[in-house]
Amino acid sequence: MEAEKNPQQEAKNLYEWTKQGKWNMVVERYKINPNTHKVKITRLGDTALHIAVLNGEENIVEKLVRLIDEAAAKKPMEKRNDSAAKEQESASELKDQGSALESKEQASESAAKAEASASAAKEQAKGNDFAETPEGHPLKIANDRGDTPLHLAASIGNDRMCHCISQKHKDLVGARNKLAETPLFLAALHGKKDAFLCLHKICDPDEGSKYCRKNDGETILHCAIAGEYFGKYLSFIPY
């Protein structure tokens, strides 16, 4: 399609669809063309996922996040499969053609190693539910303020979207924007108790304390007092 060959047209289409509320079309494009997952469509550098979060489109956010995760999981597997295939092909050539430097037994050993390497790669690709999010992953894309989709979900206090975005990538909870604010910090800053509790539960105990502090030393306790949310956080502020 023309849009796939023209990133500017793709961005324009996504922007118009989000503006008009044609979210099913956005989901379809995310399904057909994984390259759209990283396309920024506004002057502030937001992706379609950013806009979906800001609009409170919970069902759409869940669909987009699932498609993003599925596409991201396929890429390393495809690379490993290609690499393993090349190794197997090379080993097969050594076995078929013979080599002046290697005997048939050595060629067979090389082929066996290639097969073992491919098998190990597949096992490693299974990962776990709380793997670190690879650099370049679409869920880590930030707008001009440095906010990821999770920052926005935390700011508006939508715990369902917070859980959806962070459940498989807990390191996103500690991502910092240009003001050194994490999603966990923003949930506290805006007095969003449910979102805060959701994200705090995902963190490891030692990480929660670190994510609750800005680089300048300001903590969620300062935010709670300044925003008169102290009563909300009194029972679980880790200080």
Automatic annotation (TrEMBL):
Q: Where is the composition biased (Basic and acidic residues)?
A: 75-107, 134-145
Keyword vocabulary terms for this entry: ANK repeat
Q: Which domain of life is it from?
A: Eukaryota
* Composition bias type Low complexity, residue spans: 108-122
Keyword Repressor in record: no
Q: Per the record, a Pfam family? A: Ank_2
Which portions of the sequence form the region Disordered?
75-145
Tell me which stretches of the chain form a coiled coil: none
**InterPro entries referenced in this protein's UniProt entry, alphabetically:** Ankyrin_rpt, Ankyrin_rpt-contain_sf
Quote the Gene3D superfamilies the UniProt record gives. Ankyrin repeat-containing domain
Q: What is this protein called?
A: Uncharacterized protein
